[in-house]
């Protein structure tokens, strides 16, 4: 089997996940938060495909495809929300969108 | 015959339902006519039933008819069944016959009242309930009828619902009767447990096998029901108060029919009571005490209806005495004659009250003999019959009953003496009332307020029914003159065999003594209240005790009412307030406080949620790793 060992893929995946998570936690613009979420999802996809290749099992690849479909629909909803917020002149800042506070 | 018995039972129920449903679509008087007609139908078919029954040989005169199974619980089946036998037909005739006259009288008495329709619906319902009670073929149906007559009594005592005393009296009657119903129900439970059935026939067959303390308890429970319903000591205090109801109600329910239900039960269930002779003696003893106490208390009452009410208690005491000493036919005979002359006295008093604008205090009456001569005649006949003067009806029944007591050993002789003293008291209080109300010159109150009944239709209804009862009070006793002529005893023989048979000598001695004492009572009453040759004896203490009716009300107030109120107040203050209400208040406050604190966790900031999620997942992962390692 050619190419680097599975551990490289996993390391990259972990790094990407951490970057995404950090973005979700510290950025305040909802658009960037959504972008960071996509990075987290794709890091998971990378890990899935890495394992699929390592174990020679296509199940992981199919699963990654399913994740992409879900991610696409999630982005549609998320971006729709952002557009709707912008239209109603709500500031695009997740920290100020705290109306549901207890 | 079975069909006619069912028609007899259901006709008043139909009238009651019709009057209720028709509401204001029928006139007030039409409601009265409808109720009267339905009871007349009952009486006519009861007569038909009677004649059909007499046609049959004596030993075949018992028929049970079941419409459907009314109740099933485990092995117990209770059918909606009626029993047609000499005793029930006898009671059907008394109830529907006297009931018809009294309901007809009500057309006149209640004329112009605001809610006549309600009154007549209740009256018809009462007649139905009473017929259900006497026709039932099963102890549970008997209890149902027992409860229904109690309900009707409650509704009719409280008929004048704008009067607080009437409502209080109605509640008192209902509660006292509920006590009796409860003891009866307990007795029935015990019977179900022992015998598994409540049908008369099956119960009477199996009753020998019950034995021991169980049969005594059953009899005691049943006696409790009888004592409450028939207003015998110690459950008698409701009857004088029940006089708050309209006068025809007092006549029908609280004199002629419902209050005698206890006597009917003692006779109907005589096979049960005969297994518990001590309870029978207790019944007779209670009757004797009641007849004496009520007779004495009646001497100081000033309300015309209460005098008659105490007289009713006293006369039912005689019946209990007779039924307890197992001279059943004489008890039933006295029940019938009492229904006639007591209904007559009440209805006559009703005319007096009516013509004096609802005044009931005998001290304000006087001299009514001149202005109401026919009522005077009727009342005299009723009082003479009550006092047992021959040849009026009370003589035949009361003397036969007392003579039988003489045949029942030493205990019987004791009760016989009490009964004879009662005869004297009866004559005394009856004629005290007659002389005060009718004797002398018209009092100022009478002259001012008298409102002479005219020849209007309502007055005529009142007049002819009182006339009919007068005739019945005279001739009603002639159907039996033991020991020469006793068709009633023979008729009732298959149901209740008398355990004692007085000899001719005993009859003669009793009759002579009873009549002599009755005449003596009348003479004393005349001496004091009419001729006024002697002052009314005054004995401060005794009078006060009697006017307070021997302090029974005060005793029950102190023993039951006050402790109950105290207990309720105490539990309300010390248990309900701090414990139940307090705990609920604390619970709500605690929940609210907890929610306020917890809601601080919800910051509304996305990042705290995400951090909590991520942090939680990370911690869980670590935990799993550590555990696995």
- In terms of structural class, how would the helical and strand content of chain A be classed? mainly alpha
Major beta-sheet overview of chain B: 2 strands, antiparallel
Helix/sheet category of chain B: mainly alpha
- Rg of chain B computed from alpha carbons, rounded to a whole number of angstroms: 30 Å
The helix count of chain A comes to: 3
The total of beta strands of chain B comes to 2
**Strand order of the biggest β-sheet of chain B:** 1-2
Poorly predicted runs of chain A: none
SSE topology string of chain A? HHH
Helix content of chain B: over 70%
Please report the total strand number of chain A as a whole number: 0
Major beta sheet summary of chain A: none
Beta content of chain A = under 5%
Shape of chain A: elongated
Q: What oligomeric arrangement do these chains adopt?
A: heterodimer
Count of DSSP helices of chain B? 26
Could you characterize what this model shows?
The complex is a heterodimer of chains A (102) and B (629). Chain A has helices at 6-26, 30-55, 59-87. By secondary structure, chain A is mainly α. Chain A has a single domain (6-87), classed as Orthogonal Bundle (Helix Hairpins). In chain A, helix 1 packs antiparallel against helix 2 and helix 2 packs antiparallel against helix 3. The longest helix of chain A has 29 residues, at 59-87. Chain A starts with 5 loop residues before the first helix and ends in a 15-residue tail after the last helix. Chain B is mainly alpha-helical. Helix content of chain B is 74%, strand content 3%. Chain B is built from 26 helices and 2 strands. Chain B has helices spanning 2-22, 28-55, 86-109, 116-135, 139-157, 164-195, 200-206, 212-229, 238-241, 247-256, 261-268, 270-274, 277-298, 304-324, 328-355, 368-371, 373-387, 393-405, 409-438, 444-449, 457-475, 487-492, 504-530, 540-547, 552-599, 606-628; strands at residues 63-73, 76-84. Chain B has a two-stranded antiparallel sheet. In chain B, strand 1 and strand 2 (76-84) form a beta hairpin. In chain B, helix 1 (2-22) runs antiparallel to helix 2 (28-55), helix 1 packs antiparallel against helix 4 (116-135) and helix 3 packs antiparallel against helix 21 (457-475). Chain B starts with a helix and ends with a helix. The mean pLDDT of chain B is 87. Classes of the chains: A mainly alpha (102), B mainly alpha (629). Chains A and B meet through helix 1 of A and helix 26 of B.
């Amino acid at each position: 089997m050619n190419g680097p060992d599975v551990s490289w893929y996993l390391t990259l995946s972990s790094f990407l996940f951490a970057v995404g998570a950090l973005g979700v936690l510290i950025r305040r613009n909802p658009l960037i938060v959504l972008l960071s979420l996509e990075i987290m999802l794709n890091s998971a996809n990378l890990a899935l495909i890495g394992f699929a290749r390592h174990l020679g099992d296509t199940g992981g690849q199919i699963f990654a495809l399913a994740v992409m479909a879900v991610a696409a629909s999630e982005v549609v909803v998320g971006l729709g929300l952002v557009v709707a917020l912008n239209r109603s002149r709500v500031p695009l800042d997740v920290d100020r969108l705290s109306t549901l506070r207890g | 015959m079975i069909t006619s018995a069912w028609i007899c039972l259901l006709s008043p129920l139909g009238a009651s339902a019709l009057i209720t449903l028709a509401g204001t679509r029928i006139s007030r008087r039409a409601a009265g006519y409808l109720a009267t007609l339905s009871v007349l139908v009952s009486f006519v078919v009861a007569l038909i039933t009677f004649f059909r029954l007499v046609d049959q040989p004596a030993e075949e005169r018992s028929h049970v008819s079941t419409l459907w199974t009314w109740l099933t619980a485990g092995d117990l089946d209770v059918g909606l069944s009626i029993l047609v036998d000499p005793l029930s037909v006898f009671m059907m005739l008394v109830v529907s016959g006297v009931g018809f006259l009294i309901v007809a009288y009500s057309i006149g008495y209640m004329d112009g009242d605001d809610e006549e329709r309600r009154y007549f619906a209740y009256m018809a319902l009462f007649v139905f309930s009473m017929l259900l009670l006497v026709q039932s073929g099963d102890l549970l149906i008997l209890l149902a009828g027992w409860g229904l007559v109690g309900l009707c009594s409650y509704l009719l005592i409280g008929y004048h619902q704008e009067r607080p005393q009437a409502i209080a009296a109605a509640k008192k009657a209902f509660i006292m009767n509920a006590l009796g119903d409860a003891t009866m129900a307990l007795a029935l439970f015990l019977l179900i447990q022992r015998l598994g059935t409540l049908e008369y026939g099956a119960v009477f067959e199996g009753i020998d096998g019950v034995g021991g303390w169980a049969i005594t308890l059953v009899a005691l429970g049943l006696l409790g029901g009888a004592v409450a319903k028939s207003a015998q000591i110690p459950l008698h205090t409701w009857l004088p108060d029940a006089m708050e109801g309209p006068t025809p109600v007092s006549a029908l329910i609280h004199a002629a029919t419902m209050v005698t239900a206890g006597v009917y039960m003692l006779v109907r269930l005589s096979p049960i009571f005969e297994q518990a002779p001590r309870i029978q003696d207790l019944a007779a003893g209670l009757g004797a005490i009641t007849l004496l106490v009520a007779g004495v208390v009646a001497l100081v009452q000033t309300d015309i209806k209460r005098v008659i009410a105490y007289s009713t208690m006293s006369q039912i005491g005689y019946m209990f005495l007779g039924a307890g000493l197992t001279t059943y036919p004489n008890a039933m005979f006295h029940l019938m004659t009492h229904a006639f002359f007591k209904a007559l006295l009440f209805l006559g008093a009703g005319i007096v009250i009516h013509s004096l604008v609802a005044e009931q205090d005998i001290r304000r009456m006087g001299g009514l003999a001149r202005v109401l001569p026919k009522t005077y005649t009727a009342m005299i006949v009723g009082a003479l019959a009550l006092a047992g003067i021959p040849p009026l009806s009370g003589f035949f029944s009361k003397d036969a009953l007392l003579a039988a007591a003489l045949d029942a050993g030493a205990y019987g002789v004791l009760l016989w003496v009490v009964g004879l003293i009662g005869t004297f008291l009866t004559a005394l209080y009856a004629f005290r009332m007659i002389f005060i109300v009718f004797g002398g010159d018209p009092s100022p109150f009478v002259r001012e307020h008298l409102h002479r009944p005219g020849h209007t239709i309502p007055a005529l209804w009142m007049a002819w029914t009182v006339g009919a009862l007068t005739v019945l009070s005279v001739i009603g006793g002639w159907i039996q003159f033991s020991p020469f002529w006793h068709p009633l005893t023979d008729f009732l023989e298959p149901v209740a065999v008398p355990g004692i048979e007085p000899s001719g000598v005993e009859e003669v001695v009793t009759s002579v003594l009873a009549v002599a004492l009755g005449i003596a009572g009348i003479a004393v009453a005349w001496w004091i209240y009419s001729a006024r040759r002697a002052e009314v004896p005054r004995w401060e203490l005794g009078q006060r005790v009697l006017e307070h009716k021997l302090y029974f009300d005060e005793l029950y107030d102190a023993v039951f009412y006050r402790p109950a109120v105290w207990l309720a107040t105490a539990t309300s203050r010390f248990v309900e307030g701090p414990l139940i209400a307090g705990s609920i208040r604390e619970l709500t406050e605690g929940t609210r406080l907890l929610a306020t604190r917890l809601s601080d966790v919800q910051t509304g900031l996305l990042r705290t949620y995400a951090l909590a999620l991520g942090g939680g997942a990370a911690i869980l992962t670590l935990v799993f790793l550590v555990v696995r390692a």
